[in-house]
Specification:
The complex is a heterotrimer of chains A (about 425), B (about 280) and C (about 300). Chain A is built from 20 helices and 14 strands. With about 425 residues, chain A is of the alpha/beta class. Chain A has a 6-stranded mixed sheet. The chains are: A alpha/beta (about 425), B mainly alpha (about 280), C mainly alpha (about 300). At the B-C interface, helix 1, helix 4, helix 5, helix 6 and helix 10 of B face helix 2, helix 4, helix 5, helix 6 and helix 8 of C.
Chain lengths: ~425, ~280, ~300
């Protein structure tokens, strides 16, 4: 990147002459280097490097240093630790529910001015839904890069034994649970269904009922509501009628690959992994989640967004360019082809030039993409106890899994415990 | 146990059977790990226990590890860091342990108490302030950051002190009468005799630091100075699932040097521990 | 010792001894200097900083924080999570310590009892100590897998109809982690006992035989066990310290779950500090942990030191 002529104009005559002599030397300066951080390298490395390679064709003067962390949580900790020391990366891809923490501590830049410089963000694929995923703390804290939703993984061999195939798979939970009962009656029956353990996976049931975690003014936790109770009761039915085994998610992944689970409800992020661990063991298919409330039902996303951290103007420009490219139609198309995540660019999804062919050739990947219109942002609880609240919800759900409490008790306890962890209404 | 001459094979069988059975139990995870590292992902988790894969995937798995992370770089870092830590640990601990064992000086009991106290402090306690200090002076991501915090090993001081207490005083007195200065005594008289204990301690130290995950996770960013444990961690992921096959291959690669080193040094190791005077 | 010498030696030697003592003190201090500096900079100072943090409400990256006195400790008293972690740690130590010591001793005795295969078994038994927990995690997940793992397959074969869900059931997870802990520590203790056994003078066994002890059990009771006293005390202390510091298996295999059933002190400390970012509270937990360990070791030394026979 060349320095702006503004600097030269400020100098004295001698300085201008000096500067004129020095200009050729300045033009020969080294390129801009930016440090970019992301999580889950064994999943995203290929896509990040493909994006970087394509990017360098547009902007050869920008060099990228990569920093990786195994998971999103370690990534947030890394940035926070670095911010204390003042050495944070220039650009970071954080879990979507961590944008708030960094935004509220003033660590990231608001991307709105950068977006406003673009002629028409929507025409480049940044739809309102997609931009909304990265909005928090009153600013555009990040641009969503790769999102995941819950989808349905099916073992077609098991389904065939009960007379169902991918097209006739039930579309609501009553149908699924009835299917589960039929699978359980097979000789040497596998575990009929498995629903991923944890707060994020379960939230699909809450949001699917049209519910949400917090009220609009963020004062009240909304578990003790008709939707919350309905979601908890549905979860109970899934556990009991679906005869769900008490496995943790890695164990369920392994059992599904071994053909000992009929249907798994889990994140599309696992897709590549599931495909590899299923391999040649049985035919695999995916589809959307069973629909609970066709009108008000939503799905919380997982995944990551790019956040701009650096304050240095030169690096800001360079980092913004890379961020914009990585979330452009070209960039996200590269990302999708290398992972199971959903692209965050409407152009990439709609325009057959980019991904139309890909989805036709790889139908397994399209389940999550078809649910994109239903998605809502990955919610981050207000205050400083966000992670702890998530943990509290997961712990209480576990009581239901192990049949140590009724849905009503769990709803009550969760309501009480989480409310205590929220900031007091001032 | 009393030595009664070599037992006949027949009489030895029960002992060998019991030991063999226990050994098999202890080795199970290792056996599975190696077997998993040469299988393709869809064969890893089958309901039946097959140790040999149907489709040998070892080349692909190990090649993937070598292509995704700079394996030799990680191993080299592990060697440098462990050797560096060991060097400084011996350098600091042996003189201190000798002084605590054989010499009298004001504050000796206080020093001993501090050593015992230090044994109980887990590494997580000083971690964050150390991290902040290192980052303020720009030492993050360096060998120094990986080595410095561990240069003080109270376990080494403890072990060597036990050992030195068992050394006969005459050794030191004879050296003194010969006119050798105190410092020279440490390096010319004490150290050569400390070799067995040093070997024993070396194994403890190397094992602990080769496998250390917590501290490198905090101070290392990027791959230039990353250690073997981080190399294995690369293939884990909560949101998208671990890449098990590559993970196992990486695990085998990163564990192998340590296992080989131990097999090589194990006799010295046991002898060394015996000489540390566990009699008290 | 200088005093004993000076009582019997001429004055010139006494003077030399006094000079030696002064010189000795100086040398003693100098020899401790490098270690002392390292101890101060790398251990003492940072630990004190962390302890001070225990009385603040510092959070990682917080823009403002301050002194809050003992508020963290008050919170700890009411924290259900901390109480559970405390209880689980005690149970874990209670499981791992006796089992790994007994098995370690047994293995050492068996190995020493014959000549064949010593080096082999020694190496094999020590291998678990050398293992990297992150690497072993997947192996444990599979071996202990409730539906497709070999352990439960074997149990079903011998008639157990509903084998436990080892790592995902609140009832069994602590036991499973304890078993893994024993696996990790057996080799360590075995090696220590081997060293202790090899230091027992042969003459004692010969003397015992002369005195008429015939059976293996009597030999053990009269010679081996008493002579192993200091070793056993050492092993006991080391094993308790190692098991109270359990962290890796919990962090990698269960993350404290399900529903805190496998939460232990150090993992809670880590979670509070690094996941929930509440470093002040985490430091408070650390302080309590340190005091507990100190108390434990003190108690044990007092109770057992008297009963140990030093040769």
């Amino acid at each position: 990147m060349m320095p702006k002529p503004l600097n030269l104009r400020r100098r004295s005559l001698v300085g201008i002459a000096f500067g004129a002599l020095a200009a050729p030397a300045l033009r020969a300066q080294p390129n801009v280097e930016i440090t970019v951080h992301y999580a889950q390298p064994h999943v995203f490395r290929e896509s990040k490097e493909a994006v970087a390679a394509a990017f360098s064709r547009h902007e050869p003067g920008i060099r990228i240093n990569w920093v990786t962390t195994p998971n999103y949580d370690e990534g947030t900790q890394l940035i926070l630790r670095q911010a204390v020391a003042g050495t944070q990366a220039d650009l970071t891809y954080q879990g979507l529910n961590r944008l708030r923490v960094l935004a509220e501590r003033g660590i990231c830049q608001d991307l709105t001015p950068f977006l406003n410089r673009e002629s028409n963000p929507a025409s480049q694929g940044y739809s309102e839904t997609i931009l909304g995923l990265g909005r928090t703390a009153g600013m555009q804290a990040g641009l969503a890069y790769a999102v995941s939703t819950m989808i349905t993984y099916m073992n077609l061999d098991v389904l065939r034994d009960v007379g169902v195939d991918a097209r006739t798979f039930p579309t609501n939970w009553d149908g699924v649970l009835d299917l589960a009962a039929r699978i359980a009656r097979l000789p040497n029956a596998p575990d009929p269904i498995y629903y991923d353990i944890g707060e994020w996976a379960w939230s699909a049931l809450l949001y699917g009922h049209g519910g949400q975690y917090m009220s609009g003014d963020e004062r009240r936790f909304l578990m003790d509501t008709p939707q919350g109770l309905a979601a908890m009761r549905l979860y109970q039915r899934i556990l009991r009628e679906g005869r769900m085994p008490n496995l943790n998610t890695p164990a369920a992944q392994q059992a599904f690959g071994a053909g000992r689970i009929g249907v798994r409800f889990g994140s599309t992020a696992f897709l590549r992994n599931v495909m590899q661990s299923v391999g040649q063991n049985f035919p695999l298919a995916t589809t959307i989640m069973p629909v609970i409330d066709a009108e008000r039902g939503r799905l919380q996303v997982g995944g990551s967004a790019g956040m701009l951290l650096t304050r240095d103007p030169v690096k800001q420009e360079a980092a913004w360019k890379f961020l914009r490219f990585s979330t452009s139609a070209e960039g996200t198309a590269l990302m999708v082809q290398n992972t199971g995540y959903v692209p965050c660019n409407q152009l990439a999804v709609d325009d057959p030039r980019w991904l139309g062919e890909f989805y036709r050739a790889n139908p397994l990947f399209s389940a999550a993409m078809r649910q994109l219109p239903l998605t809502v942002a990955w919610y981050a609880f207000p205050g400083t106890n966000g992670v702890r609240i998530s943990q509290t919800i997961s712990d209480n759900l576990q009581r239901l899994v192990e049949a140590r409490a009724t849905p009503e008790q769990v709803v009550q306890d969760m309501q009480r415990e989480v409310t205590r962890l929220l900031p007091r209404a001032s | 146990m009393a030595e009664r001459g070599p037992k006949s094979l027949w009489a030895d069988v029960p002992r060998l059977l019991v030991l063999g059975f226990l050994a098999l139990l202890l080795l199970m995870p290792y056996i599975w790990m190696i077997s998993a590292s040469v299988k393709p992902l869809d064969e890893l988790f089958r309901a039946s226990l097959n140790l040999w894969p149907e489709r040998f995937h070892g080349i692909e798995n190990y090649a993937k590890v070598f292509s995704q992370i700079p394996v030799f770089g990680y191993l080299w870092n592990g060697i440098v860091v462990c050797a560096g830590i060991l060097f400084f640990q011996l350098l600091f601990a042996i003189p201190a342990a000798y002084a605590l064992a054989k010499l009298r000086f004001p504050g000796r009991d206080l020093a001993l108490g501090l050593v015992m106290l230090g044994l109980l402090v887990p590494p997580h306690v000083p971690a964050l302030p150390l991290y902040l200090a290192f980052s303020k002076i720009g030492l993050l991501n360096t060998y120094a950051a990986l080595i410095l915090p561990f240069t003080i090993s109270v376990f080494a001081i403890f072990l060597f002190r036990q050992f030195f207490k068992a050394l006969p005083d005459e050794l030191v007195h004879a050296a003194r009468l010969d006119g050798i200065g105190e410092f020279e005594i440490v390096w010319r008289v004490i150290l050569p005799n400390a070799w067995p204990a040093a070997t024993a301690f070396a194994i403890f130290s190397v094992v602990a630091h080769w496998n250390d995950l917590f501290w490198p996770l905090i101070v290392i960013e990027g791959q230039a100075r990353a250690t073997p444990a981080l190399g294995v961690l690369y293939f884990r992921s909560d949101e998208a699932g671990d890449d098990f096959a590559a993970l196992m291959a990486a695990a085998v690669i990163m564990t192998l040097p340590l296992v080989l080193a131990f097999l090589f040094a194990q006799r010295r190791f046991v002898e060394g521990i015996a000489t540390t005077g566990l009699k008290g | 010792m200088p005093e004993a010498l000076s009582a019997a030696q001429p004055a010139s030697f006494q003077a030399k001894s006094r000079r030696l003592t002064r010189g000795e003190a100086l040398v003693g201090l100098m020899l401790n200097l490098p270690a002392g500096i390292a101890y101060f900079l790398m251990l003492l100072l940072p630990s004190l900083a962390t302890i001070l943090l225990a009385f603040t409400d510092y959070e990682l990256g917080a823009l403002e924080w301050g002194w809050i006195g003992i508020a963290n400790f008050e919170e700890m008293l009411e924290d259900r999570g901390f109480a559970i972690a405390l209880r689980n740690t005690v149970i874990y130590v209670g499981l791992v310590t006796p089992l790994s010591i007994l098995l370690g001793l047994g293995a050492a005795l068996l190995i020493e009892a014959g000549m064949r295969g010593r080096a082999l078994f020694r190496a094999v038994f020590f291998l678990p100590v050398v293992s990297l927990t992150v690497a072993m995690a997947a192996a444990w997940q599979y071996l202990l897998h409730p539906t497709i793992g070999p352990l439960n397959a074997f149990l079903r074969l011998v008639g157990v109809t509903a084998p436990p869900f080892w790592l995902s059931s609140s009832d069994w997870v602590l036991l499973s982690l304890g078993a893994i802990g024993v696996w990790e520590n057996v080799g360590y203790n075995m090696v220590l006992f081997l060293a202790g056994l090899s230091a027992i003078p042969r003459e004692l066994y010969q003397a015992a035989e002369v005195d008429g002890t015939k059976s293996w059990i009597d030999r053990f009771r009269l010679v081996t066990w008493p002579m192993l006293g200091p070793t056993t005390l050492f092993v006991l202390t080391i094993t308790m310290i190692r098991s109270i510091r359990v962290f890796d298996t919990v962090a990698v295999l269960t993350q404290g779950g399900p529903n805190k059933a496998s939460e232990v002190l150090l993992h809670t400390m880590y979670k509070e500090g690094f996941t929930f970012l509440r470093l002040g509270y985490s430091a408070a937990i650390t302080l309590v942990f340190l005091l507990m360990v100190l108390g434990l070791v003190w108690l044990q030394t007092k109770a057992l030191d008297k009963r140990v026979h030093y040769g």
